[in-house]
Amino acid sequence: MTETKARKSPDIPRQGMPEQDPQERAHNFYEVALGYTEELALLEASRCLQCKKPLCMQGCPVEIDIPIFIGRIREKDFLGAAGMIKQKNSLPSIAGRVCPQETQCEERCVLGKKGQPCAIGRLERFAADYERTTGKVQYPKIPPPIGKRVAVVGSGPAGLTLAGELIKRGVAVSVFEALHELGGVLVYGIPEFRLPKAIVRSEVEYLRTLGVEFKTDHVIGKIATVDDLIGDGFDAVFIGTGAGAPMFLNIPGENLCGVYSANEYLTRNNLMKAYLFPQYDTPIARGRRVAVFGGGNVAMDSARTALRLGAEEVNIIYRRTEAEMPARAEEAHHAKEEGVQFKMLSNPLEFIGNETGWVIGVRCNRMKLGQPDSSGRRRPVPIEGDFFTIEIDTAIVAIGNRSNPLIPQSTPGLALNRHGNIVADLDTGKTSRDNIWAGGDIVTGAATVILAMGAGRKAALDILAHFGVKDAAQPAQA
């Protein structure tokens, strides 16, 4: 197929994504962003300059050929665009929704130097959704088995990406998931209104159709160890168990009833459908006045979930200013539109409880910004004597996660860093143990879905090289 030649982009503004009305969506769990229509996708694709040296690709962790897939959209070859994306990314409908494109591919787009960059992520979502919703899903030609087996521990974005890369090159893949549903953080961490679980199931089924074997309710480290898997005949093991152990504030009153970790709060709602109680038998306290502590995407997800569960007032409490928040600007914007309040430069000191052991308030210290710390952000400094109390009945702590120690503790000789993360080469995924690779949050600590996907792809290519597979970077074509 002849790709679209480079030409000057017409003077067309970046096309916005249709969304649910904020007043309506704040009370339902349906997806907020509705996706591009064909007309909007064609307009946005026409903005792409089709650069001969596309800088945008340098910002893509899975190395999608961005100008080519956008060129195919411009030619109305929507299925061709989806196929091009899936050569490098087996989870395009997911990446198109939750990848922080604004700090990766779009940040390097030439159009962004004088205006707004091309909406690469929205176009990726459009192409992937078009393929899925039309029922015209394309499957690559699977080569004959090469006689190698790989075990994948964890079905999150890193593990699913690695499984897709390997199965397309003739490697037998078995994915072991501890929970009863597949998807890892995609199903227990990200709310339905940002990533519908039907999308995750669809992407998983695509991999299952390609030949990936999935085993749920398999807690590796308990029912079997990584060494047991190698002993059972697997030629390699990839560890992609994520960072699912919550961090806490460690302040008085944190054990009061009504104080949740964001992990528990979101898992109850996302994976176990607490918002549909009693249809799903997972009760959760529906707070009236809710405080969420943290400034990342998980904090935004928690706050917006609380609103949808009927909270009258939801406050984000964060030690720095909004400029320092790690959350995507889009997520913070959506939260504000829906009615979440932001209390910046505020640090919690203690939770206050009543006589029955339930939280009824949080005492905070006002802060100011000092000199930059190791993160490059200005350090929050307490303002002496400036305290205030907020009345609450639910608190959600969303200040980060640590790696679950189960796999490291049950795998002798696996090197760890001081945070308990597995030490692995960031370019290959190799660990200190032969035949064991790792990637995603278990290596880097809590990061983004697309970075975990990138780690899975890199590890897959290194495993293929280890197996002696030639041209490992290019899968078989349909």
Give an overview in words.
The structure is a single chain. The chain is 30% helix and 17% strand. It is built from 16 helices and 15 strands. It folds into three domains: 22-133, Orthogonal Bundle (Fumarate Reductase Iron-sulfur Protein, Chain B, domain 2); 149-244 and 403-466, FAD/NAD(P)-binding domain, CATH 3.50.50; 248-401, FAD/NAD(P)-binding domain. It has helices at residues 22-25, 38-45, 66-74, 78-86, 92-98, 120-133, 157-167, 185-188, 197-210, 226-231, 262-270, 297-308, 329-338, 406-409, 441-444, 449-466, and strands at 149-153, 172-176, 213-215, 236-239, 245-246, 259-261, 289-293, 313-317, 341-343, 346-353, 359-372, 378-391, 394-397, 401-402, 436-438.
CATH architecture of the largest domain: 3-Layer(bba) Sandwich
Uncertain stretches? none
Fraction in beta strands = 15-25%
* Tertiary shape: globular
Structural class: alpha/beta
Total number of distinct structural domains? 3
Going by CATH, what is the homologous superfamily of the largest domain? Answer: FAD/NAD(P)-binding domain
Gyration radius from CA atoms, angstroms = 23 Å
Instruction: State the end-to-end CA separation.
Output: 14 Å
User: Helix coverage percent of residues?
Assistant: 25-40%
Mean pLDDT level? 93
Q: What's the number of extended β-strand segments?
A: 15
What is the CATH class designation of the largest domain? Alpha Beta
Largest sheet: 5 strands, parallel
Based on the structure, what is the oligomeric state of the protein chains?
single chain
Strand order of the largest sheet: 3-2-1-4-15
